[in-house]
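Tokens as discussed.
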């Protein structure tokens, strides 16, 4: 809602509709790339790893796909093959699975740009809190980043809310739930969510929605409860990033693995439930998981 409102403000301010759509979209696109790199660098402390993360995430379903790697290995003239405009972004169409995020979400659904940018900022600040590196202002801006999300992009709010809740619970657990009323840092983080996010959620809840908006759909687009078939479905859809991430999880310490846990929870939930009438829209939840997988 807020991104559409921003377009309206710019048009009323005297700009053309084209510029009203183009300028915020370009700025948000740069913000997403910048924040994704900033967080990946914070997490990995490696320029190479941060770059690999961006490639695996933004090129999901393309250069990181099994189909591309298979065709590339069989190609005689590698340079000519790379010049081939073949589409690996969504083989079989969107309904086949996890298509490329840039071509199917970020470009046609510009509200996701603002939502994902705010979520990335929240993840960066929450990770600083989680790792004990945060300043007092990080607590406030982490709360604000999450609190602004409901009217921007509800799916990003839902996922960021899980991460926010896990960090909040961990901080409360470490303080043994004693003296929470006097814990100024936690209240700095929690107050924006109470004051800003809850009224937005109450307003959204009053809006009409179609019957069957939510539902149970085990296996997502694999549409099966067979664990082996679901595993093969995700190995095909996530590409080479998934097995590399599983190896990476074994290599990092327990603190890093625990930081990934909220997104595994989101991944599991989106494989069990349909959160919108069109089942493919669960991609908006999976993309957060995919970023952390990358």
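Sequence:
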């Amino acid at each position: 809602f807020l991104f559409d409102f921003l377009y309206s403000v710019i048009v009323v301010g005297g700009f053309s509709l084209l510029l009203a759509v183009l300028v915020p979209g370009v700025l948000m696109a740069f913000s997403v790339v910048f924040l994704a790199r900033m967080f990946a660098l914070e997490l990995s402390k490696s320029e190479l790893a941060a770059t690999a993360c961006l490639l695996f995430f933004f090129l999901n379903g393309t250069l990181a796909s099994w189909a591309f790697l298979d065709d590339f290995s069989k190609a005689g003239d590698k340079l000519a093959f790379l010049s081939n405009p073949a589409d690996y972004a969504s083989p079989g169409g969107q309904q086949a699975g996890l298509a490329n995020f840039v071509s199917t979400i970020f470009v046609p659904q510009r509200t996701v740009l603002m939502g994902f940018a705010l979520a990335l900022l929240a993840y960066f600040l929450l990770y600083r809190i989680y790792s004990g590196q945060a300043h007092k202002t990080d607590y406030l801006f982490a709360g604000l980043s999450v609190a602004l999300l409901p009217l921007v992009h509800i799916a990003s709010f839902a996922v960021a809310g899980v991460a926010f809740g896990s960090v909040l619970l961990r901080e409360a657990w470490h303080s043994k739930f004693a003296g929470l009323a006097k814990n100024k840092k936690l209240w700095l983080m929690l107050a924006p969510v109470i004051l800003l996010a809850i009224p937005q959620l109450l307003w959204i809840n009053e809006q009409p929605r179609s019957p069957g908006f939510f539902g149970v759909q085990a296996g997502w687009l694999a549409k099966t409860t067979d664990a082996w078939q679901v595993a093969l479905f995700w190995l095909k859809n996530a590409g080479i990033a998934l097995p590399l991430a599983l190896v990476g999880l074994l290599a990092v310490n327990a603190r890093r693995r625990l930081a990934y846990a909220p997104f595994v929870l989101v991944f599991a939930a989106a494989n069990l439930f349909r959160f919108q009438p069109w089942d493919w829209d669960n991609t908006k939840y999976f993309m957060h998981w995919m970023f952390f997988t990358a």
